Amino acid sequence: MSTAPRYTAYFVPHTHWDREWYLPFESFRARLVRVIDDLLDLLARDPAFPSFTLDGQAIVLRDYLEVRPEREAELRRLIEAGRIRIGPWYVLADEFLVSPEALVRNLSLGTRTCAAFGDRLPVAYTPDSFGHVSQLPLLAEGFGLDAIVFERGVGDEGERLRGEFLWERADGASEVFTKHLLTSYSSAAAIGHADWEMTDPYDPDLAVRHARAALYGTDGRDIAELPVWIRESLERIEGGATAYATGDALLLLNGSDHLYAQADAPRAIRDLNDALQGVEVRHADLEAFVRHARGAAGDLARHRGEFRAGRYHHLLSGVLSARMYLKQANARAQTRLEAYTEPLAALAWLHGQAYPAALLDHAWRILLENHPHDSICGCSVDAVHDEMMTRFASMHHVAAPLEDAAERALAGPEGTHAVSVFNPHPRPVRRLLEVTLPWTGDGAPRLQDASGRAVPCEATVTHPYAPGRSDAREAHAHLTFAAELPPLGFASYDLAEGPSEAAPQVRTTRHQGTLQAENDRIRLEVDPYGAVVLSDLASGIDYPLELRFEDDADAGDSYDFSPLDEEPITLRAPDGPPELVEDGPLRATVRLSYRADLPARLRDDRRAREGTVTLPLTVELRVEAERPALGVRVEVENHAEDHRLRLCVASGCRSDHVWCEGHFDLVRRPVRPPAGEGWFQTPQPTMPQRRFTAVQSGRRGLAVLNRGLPELEPRAGEHGVDLAVTLLRCVGWLSRDDLTSRPQGAGPALPVPGAQCPGRHAFELAVMPLPGEDWHAPLLHEADLFAAPPRARAVQGPAAAPTRTLELTAPLVMTACTRATSRPSLLVRIWNPSPRRVEGALTPGVSIEEAHLVRLDETRLEPIARDGSAVPLAMEPQEVRTVELVPDAKGGGRRQ
Q: pTM for the full model?
């Protein structure tokens, strides 16, 4: 009498596709073409091979068909038949290094790309990202994905969560079924073969030993013939997949990086079914596994929060700071699309201009091509990252004319008679702005608003040569002015002759070599030796910042920092006294200059550094009218190799945790990392951040803001928590296998001299005192303004009254304002970063016919009753909502 199997093992053939990595994109595409050609031929000749998963990203379809358009019909038929599973992502991005809106657009483009071919895989399959953000369940749920399957990032909580669990959104309102790939996304790769490329004969005995190791653990069995990369993955998990199963469904992933489909997989499945007792092996896909596993699981454990630990797999956290110039370029690019290009195009559409949907999609596609984990992480060969910088430039070339056309429609064509300012934020703003424009007057220019009221303004007139001329000059006026701006709208100003009547708003003093600069919110004091104190004038609290640079030796690679047994070099005192380089009525800037004498590079044995080079460093500290934060600009000329340079700021706040802005979430993280006993990779003290990290304790609180600097380390200092922001991490190897911070290599050992980041670099930060315990709204508002300041441009014609398009109650944050892809309506995405429920409203500046709550994928959930022109909002902490506004054509909105 036969006994029913105890387990069902779902055997899923797949390939994991790194679009570019240790080879440039086109080199990998040549292999992609061969892999998909081979797959199409295999599926055509072998009906016993029911399905193959083409990774989790749809861009491979475009990449293949650009070279093989003649095979589109074959590919489409197999996708429609479910024999090739595709999507749901457009690219497999690193989640921490791109914005939350970039992840939304990634899934949106992936969903639409898949829809052109057939059904997408309804699983958020993210096999190789280096950790996972806390709101991945929100993204999955928002696109109708009923499960998440991932590998890296789990710490000690994995022993409680097991192989399957429920992952809750940050607001706790719902959860998504999740599978943790403890034995990796390659647990059954090349099964029955000792050769990675499967050129050796298939060995059924080796296949059985391989499967037993994956399912039950190694337990001392001889698996020496398995490829080392498979063996090392299986040896980490004591007891194998069955030890962590929550039901009777198991998963064997038959594939790995850039692998061909295993043609003899059906034979391997038959051999495993003949040899394994208590296990039925089925050729399947992830959807089938999820369906069974969800139904068979008992009461599953729950988790809320991110995953960025390394108990079972290495996390590779050093990618946060590899090639920092890429992170800065990406911050500029995605901020431009999200804060300027899309909102401007959407607002111009509301006022009658055609919406450039195709070009905006094109701009996003270019940007998303830079977001795969091996790309934006900076852990590829130099040629890859050179191409990335070209893509960033191309995206800006697409975005610029779209913005120009929208601004012409909304604020008038370019000219020389007035200045127009766009505020990309849905609340009133007062900010210092700059613009340069031709000037035809005899004296100094000034600005006035539409009512004739003088605007606080500083003006400088220069006389450069006219374009293309060396015999004629023209006058240019550079204006610095304080603008009062309506929410998500425009304000304009007339240009006239004569001095500004505004009183000074920034005051400076010098006493015995100490410089002071203050506005109505903060005071900066810099003594003759470079000691910096920032004071919050409202609370009377002083913050000695103890600004200093720290430089460590880095014997690591592009994936991980690896220290030497030596103390960091600390640079505290500047080369000379502070300089007051700007002393206007609206802004004051103090400059500190340093000379850092550093070792030049690692010795050949990589155990110490040798040589000496000098790095010139400057720090500019800026106080601006009414701004509650101190601007900090650092410039460095990097001549050193194999080192990490950080700027350290003392908060003076005693706390065991910090708050980092995450992805639709404010993430509380401990100052000290976990012990990590028995972990595969030792926990690192550095952590990701988006636009800021804050420390708060009682009445005291301090935040450090940044533009494109995603790595930070909090440290318990003598007087509180110090915040160390990484500016540069310079290494010369793609991967190495001799790091003290990681037990094995993470890729091929290839030299990457570009990762040493030679040359000039500039970094933008800000330091802001926090107003007590209720700090969320002021800090998020400043973070919005710091990341995406209002923009001024010259326009033609007289100043007009301010125009507002959309207003949102604080502390609610708008993360997107764009036109829907599927309907002629406006989408506004809103996040509540506050720790408490917020009762607020979204108030459009145009007539609205309908309002709806929609999913991230634009599926309508329910209509929203309006209160007059306002759309009421009652949002829980960390809740995210997308509101669809249908404009009223009769009331001035656009419906075409």
A: 0.96
